[in-house]
């Protein structure tokens, strides 16, 4: 089978540009479970790219390969022109500060206040922030961006689900990443809170000029938040295009996502 048969050409408006993130032929198996079978995609500067795939299709595995939490079996990942498999520990750590990762769920540290949660990445990446003695302005700016300045001294247990998601996003923003990876940012939230988070993702894209990969199975989220969508089916980039293009597809596997 020709793996690229359904893949749209890169939009002409983006063709001259170097992708900020380039995944080529990524493969990952766990024993006999072949999860990624040559997955490829390009993320361009300033775009929100949504990845849809059914549960267990390997979306989280793919995103974990990008941040080095899972080692792929083969394939290449280039971030801002650098192949991450060729970097030494220090350079990889440095590059990682450019990539914000919002985990599935919010994964705040329950024993730390909101402020301490936000300060954590600053302490982890000391080398980049060694000249900063007062973290307050950075913490306040990040909280401001998600509209939760007043939550600074609260514990995670005092926050609603939507607030936790916002704080987790603020913790990602504090490093001013160029790329943000969102793993199911609206899962488990009620429809109104989901809409708020989606609006916030758009706001952050504009304010910080970030490029994002957004994993979701929420069709509404995909429609509102994305410039382009990639469908992960059978471990490959099965189809890609705008919401409009994919929603108009006659391919059975593509149609399944838009019912
Ligand atoms: N660390 C792991 N060890 C073994 N199998 C894993 C691991 N992580 C994920 N898997 C398997 O990989 C497949 C894809 O998982 P995942 O990427 O989490 O799916 P989703 O698309 O729902 O995010 C599943 O079959 C899952 O059981
Ligand atoms: Mg997942």
Brief sketch in words of this structure:
The protein is built from 10 helices and 10 strands. With 259 residues, it is α/β, with parallel strands linked by helices.
Please give a structural write-up:
This protein is α/β, with parallel strands linked by helices and 259 residues long. It has 2 domains: 1-98 and 179-194 and 210-259, Rossmann fold (3-Layer(aba) Sandwich); 106-176, no CATH class. The chain is 35% helix and 23% strand. The chain has 10 helices and 10 strands. The chain has helices at 59-66, 89-96, 114-124, 126-129, 136-145, 161-173, 191-208, 219-225, 243-247, 252-258; strands spanning 21-30, 33-43, 48-52, 74-79, 82-83, 99-102, 179-183, 211-215, 228-233, 236-241. The strands form 2 sheets. A 6-stranded mixed beta sheet has the order 6-7-8-3-9-10, sandwiched between helices. Strands 2-1-4-5 form a 4-stranded antiparallel beta sheet, covered by helices on one side. α3 packs parallel to α6 and α5 crosses α6 (161-173). The radius of gyration is 18 Å and the shape is globular. The two termini are 26 Å apart. Mean pLDDT is 90; it is low at 1-5. Magnesium ion is lined by residues 59-60, 104, 183.
């Amino acid at each position: 089978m020709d793996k690229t048969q359904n893949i749209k050409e890169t939009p002409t408006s983006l063709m001259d540009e170097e992708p900020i993130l380039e995944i080529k032929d990524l493969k990952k198996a766990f024993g006999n479970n072949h999860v990624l079978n040559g997955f490829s995609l390009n993320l361009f500067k300033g775009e929100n790219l949504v990845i849809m795939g059914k549960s267990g299709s390997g979306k989280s595995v793919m995103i974990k390969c990008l941040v080095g939490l899972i080692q792929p079996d083969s394939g290449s990942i280039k971030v801002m022109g650098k192949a991450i498999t060729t970097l030494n520990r220090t350079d990889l750590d440095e590059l990682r500060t450019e990539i914000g990762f919002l985990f599935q769920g919010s994964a705040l540290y329950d024993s730390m206040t909101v402020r301490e949660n936000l300060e954590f990445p600053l302490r982890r990446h000391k080398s980049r922030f060694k000249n900063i003695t007062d973290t307050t302005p950075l913490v306040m700016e990040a909280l401001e961006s998600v509209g939760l300045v007043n939550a600074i001294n609260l514990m995670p247990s005092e926050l609603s689900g939507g607030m936790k998601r916002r704080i987790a996003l603020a913790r990602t923003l504090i490093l001013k990443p160029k790329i943000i990876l969102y793993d199911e940012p609206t899962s488990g939230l009620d429809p109104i809170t989901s809409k708020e988070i989606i609006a916030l993702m758009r706001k952050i894209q504009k304010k910080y000029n970030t490029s994002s990969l957004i994993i979701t199975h929420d069709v509404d989220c995909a429609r509102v938040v994305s410039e382009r969508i990639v469908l992960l089916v059978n471990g490959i980039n099965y189809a890609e295009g705008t919401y409009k293009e994919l929603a108009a597809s006659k391919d059975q596997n593509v149609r399944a996502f838009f019912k």
